[in-house]
Write a structure and sequence with these properties.
The chain has 416 residues and is of the alpha+beta class. It has one domain. 43% of the residues lie in helices and 22% in strands. The strands form three sheets. Strands 1, 2, 7, 8, 11, 12, 13 and 14 form an eight-stranded mixed β-sheet that branches. It has a four-stranded antiparallel β-sheet with strand order 4-5-3-6, with helices on both faces. Strands 9, 10, 15 and 16 form a four-stranded antiparallel β-sheet that branches. A hairpin with a 6-residue loop joins strand 15 and strand 16. It is globular, with a radius of gyration of 22 Å. The chain starts with a helix and ends in a 6-residue tail after the last helix.
């Protein structure tokens, strides 16, 4: 009887709402993201977290986009450590993040976010906005939060969101009145920010095919089924232009090199030793330099250690890079030729003119990686963005086209 009770308790824990994300289905290919059968409704006892860096456009102009990326990645690392390695869905957006957590983790996550806000302000002079919105509120106001996963490998799955719930949470955070209910306050306590695992050690990665495209594409539908048909059309057209999307991966093995720039490595030092003095940060920087030098040797000679087989690490990194995402819009970082990029932009412009989509696009010649490492043996993932503004510049374009569309809708009919 005692054994039976233990088994029942174990099953309840395994299939509890807290472990909901573990058990939802996943898709294997990006063109399956429109399969509504792959999505399930987020339970009411979960929360949505949305963050962004205020005036990230100004930071780009000041040459600080790597810092913006790193601060956004810090949110993911802090939440990961606050939930004690429990799996949770997230989408990295360059200058912001969207995440979901179970209610049991809300106090610890709120404390971590408050500390990251303090770190952004004190160490980097930036304002990080962060809000925690109950899923129950999102549903009560008529929005849905549907979630699935894109399976990159046995060790990395990327969250996929549909239903408008994430976008509505962002709207609440930016609303002057509503934000008072959901915005996380700056605690001033940097020491509460545990971002263990965050690493910023790779140099910019040159585009394998010459151009890096950051794409944001949002359908303008009359319903979810119409949205899915539009997204299917966009994905089909991009694949037709570039070939298999896997061939448009922004990172390839031969282009992966550790950075030798001290200021780039010092960004990690400021993050990981935030709130500490210059001596402590310098010591950490020296330890990172040593690890980078060892890493070059270990990977070059394909050494196997107790940590991992270093000859395979770059291949695992590529498999665990989040270049294909969906959060109520197509969000991708692709490598393509100049001719392919022209064709993609022309295709998107035609769909925009037809009233099917709004979109934003940013072009550069390289991408940048921010890494979150639990273990060097498989348990790591890598957040990619284009250099020189990436997702943030694409978002500026997207919002401008959104304003143009709204202005056109509200314009008076011409006199006959």
């Amino acid at each position: 009887m005692l054994l039976l009770k233990k088994i029942i308790r174990s099953l309840k824990e395994e299939f509890s709402s807290e472990r909901y994300y573990h058990h939802i289905p996943s898709v294997k290919e990006y063109d399956e993201i429109t399969d509504t059968a792959a999505y399930s409704e987020m339970p009411d006892d979960w929360y949505v977290i949305v963050t962004d860096i205020k005036d990230s456009t100004g930071a780009i102009e000041a040459g600080k986009y790597k810092t913006v990326n790193s601060l956004s990645a810090s949110v993911i690392a802090a939440v990961k450590n606050a939930v004690k390695q429990e799996k949770f869905p997230f989408v990295f957006g360059g200058d912001g993040t969207s995440l979901c957590i179970h209610e049991t983790h809300e106090p610890a996550v709120r404390k971590a976010l408050a500390a990251i806000k303090a770190m952004a302000r004190i160490e980097f002079g930036m304002v990080l906005r962060a809000g925690i919105v109950p899923v129950e509120r999102i549903k009560r106001d008529g929005y849905r939060l549907l979630i699935s996963k894109l399976r990159y490998s046995d060790n990395f799955e990327q969250a996929l969101f549909q239903g408008g719930g994430i976008e509505y949470a962002e709207k609440l955070l930016k609303d002057e009145k509503e934000s008072q209910n959901y915005e996380v306050a700056d605690s001033g306590r940097i020491e509460d920010a545990d971002i263990t695992g965050l690493e910023c050690r790779w140099d910019v990665v040159q585009a394998p095919k010459g151009v890096i495209l950051n794409l944001l594409v949002k359908a303008v539908p009359t319903g979810q089924s119409d949205s899915n048909r539009i997204y299917e059309e966009v994905i089909f057209n991009i694949s037709k232009i570039t070939g298999d999307l896997k061939e448009s991966h922004p990172v390839i093995r031969k282009n992966l090199r550790f950075t030798t720039g001290l200021m780039k490595l010092y960004t990690e030092s400021k993050l990981r030793r935030a709130g500490k003095g210059a001596v402590v940060k310098s010591r950490y920087l020296l330890s990172v330099i040593k690890q980078v030098l060892f890493g070059v040797v270990l990977m070059s000679f394909k050494v196997r250690t107790s940590q991992t087989n270093w000859g395979n690490y770059k291949d695992d990194l590529i498999m665990h890079t989040d270049y294909l995402k969906f959060d109520d819009m197509i969000r991708t970082v692709l490598s393509c030729t100049e001719n392919e990029s022209v064709q993609i932009e022309a295709m998107l412009q035609n769909l925009y003119a037809e009233g099917k989509i709004i979109y934003g696009i940013s072009k550069s010649d390289s991408s940048q990686l921010t890494c979150i490492v639990s273990k060097y043996e498989k348990e790591h993932f890598h957040l990619v963005d284009g250099t020189n503004g990436g997702y943030t510049k694409a978002a500026v374009q997207l919002k401008q086209r959104m304003r143009e569309r709204e202005a056109a809708k509200s314009a008076p009919e011409p006199a006959i």
